[in-house]
Amino acid sequence: MVMNKLKATGLFMIGLLLVSSTAKNVKAVVLDDAQQAGSKKTSIESSHKGTELMIPSLWWRQLSVTEGGQLAYWDTEKLKELGANWVSASYRPLDENNKFVGTSWVIPPGMIERVMELAKPGLESAHNAGIKVVGTSDSMQFRPEVMVSVGINPELLYGRDLAGNPIKIDAYQKGNYMSCLLNPYWQDIETKIGKAHAEAGFDGLFLDLFPYTSGEGVLCGCEYCKKAWEAYSQKVFGMAQPFPSAVLDLNRSVDRTFLTFRIEAIYNFMQHVEQAGKKYNPDFKVMLNCNADNPTMAYLLRLGMPQPISELGQLNAGEESSLYLYRMIESATDDPLFAQFNGPNQYMPDYKYKTELAEAFAGGGGLMLAAKNDDLDAVNKNFTDFLNKNKPTYEGAVSEARVGILYSWRDHTFLQSSAMKRTDRMLWAKNSARRTAAILASKGIPYDYIFVENGLRKKELSDYDVLIAPDLKLLDDKDAEDIRKYVEKGGRLLTLGTFGSLKSAGTDYLTRDSSLLKSWTGKEMENGYFEATLGKGKIGGSATYAIGNSESAMIISDSFNKAAGYVELDSQLKVNHNGNGRVESAIRKNGSARYIHLIRYNNRGDIGQKKASVIYKVPEQYKVKEVTGDSPYSGDMGIQWKEEGGSLTVNIENLDLYGVLKVELEPSAGLNRIFNTRRVR
Known about the structure:
It is built from 18 helices and 38 strands. It is of the alpha/beta class and 681 residues long. Strands 16-15-14-13-11-7-6-3-17 form a nine-stranded parallel beta sheet. A six-stranded antiparallel beta sheet has the order 18-31-32-38-34-35. A six-stranded mixed beta sheet has the order 21-19-22-23-27-26, with helices on both faces. Helix 5 crosses helix 6. The longest helix is centred in the middle third of the chain and has 26 residues. The N terminus and C terminus are likely disordered.
């Protein structure tokens, strides 16, 4: 669903309460400490070593007729032809005459059974073809008359605004209402839906509609929300805090805690539904449709939410870089990000779609193929053929970027927006990490995200030549000390905007007496610029960096360019190109090979001249054995290469929208093997 169209009021999450239910009895139970997300996971190790190449696809709201007249909710044969091995399917219930009834928002018990029965033949054929199938359900939206038709009283389900009125939402279909994920009756319905999918043989359940999208923010005034917040705040503060009565002000520790409570709540809800499915399929996953750069996704991933899924409607595809989404997600979880478009208006003309395909797989994730759009069949088939022909480029490959963007989910969520009305997306002007990633993309510099809350470990930081801290205001003493030691030992730090002005003390944020730069170097930023040595390393700083109201209109400040030069930001890879727009890059490795992904974007589909060149710093103690270039869109890239003094120069005659340089390395004298152990977070 397109989240920016949602304008209804009210929101409803679960807190510490979840449901234990039988067919005739529904009751709320309090999770014990071992079950609560809370602060139990303070650090998550991620060894993301690369997994099976997943090629996802989307097949929503269409009934197909397969050979032999069999009804199906997706076309397995077409998915096989396109090369997909994962599909998200949605459906509407049918009556005995195979006529549509009800809606696809939430198909309740009493209707879901027939849907699952009709899906079984398709599930069998998909699984025989090696295709995983994930079903769908809405996370909270329902139609009262549908519930009445199966004997469910909608009065028991309504989410309530702060005045106690049922919450109505007409954004997608007039007459829809929203429930509350804390409501035990709603939990019972969703749990039975999850159980039905797992029993039928589905591999997972995709909950559509991110639950924090509403004009009233994360507030829902139902009795279940209020009871859950009372218990949660009592545990955190030692006494129960009043339930919020207005838009959250994230300058207040109580409001920050309330938002944290809401994020933990939805994770708990997903876990509850997932556990019901795992009783029938141990690999069953419950996933959530949301935007990867929203202020809550990062924390959900830290808590352990599986298989992140993001819409792309917040971006101007093909014109703005989406690499940052995949780089952020890969730093947080072992599951790749699957991204999706909601319709042709978001991805046509097809250069937009082609560019996003490239960014998704180059970034370590995948774009859900628009499988129902016959006009894109050739594009999809050519691209998936390329993926399968070049599996080592993607399957098992890991990032080897030498620039890391320091990213704090608390800073991103709590400090870059003081008033929280909705949390399904983070606007350009408020997203410092994205603005920084956009600069790096425009300069062709590969990068990773580094989650500060996961712990800044010495070995991890040593993988990077340069760390960037973009408006990273919140930095606790231990993390600050780890960064200082990194620089002293020869690392390079680029600070943008405010750096480390705050540190946490419980739920409060305290202002430091003096700046970290001053305490480390004895110098302060002057006229918006900073440079200093610290031990064997360097620190550069700029008060401004990405100027403008959008990525397409972005102007990079002179002080940023000066500071970037001081810390040698492009020391790993330099990209030059003729033609229109920009060229972004990613570097991934698999065994002895390095894969340099080059993607053209911001050109309105008019590339112009296709010549380009790259200069790549060869890892120490290795030399280049061979270089080849290939593209799913134009084939051979027409390359010439030479290595000299530890630097590889590749001249490219034909760089289309996307091309990959494969650089085969071999040990220099005295080095016997190449390790492939580097991984983010």
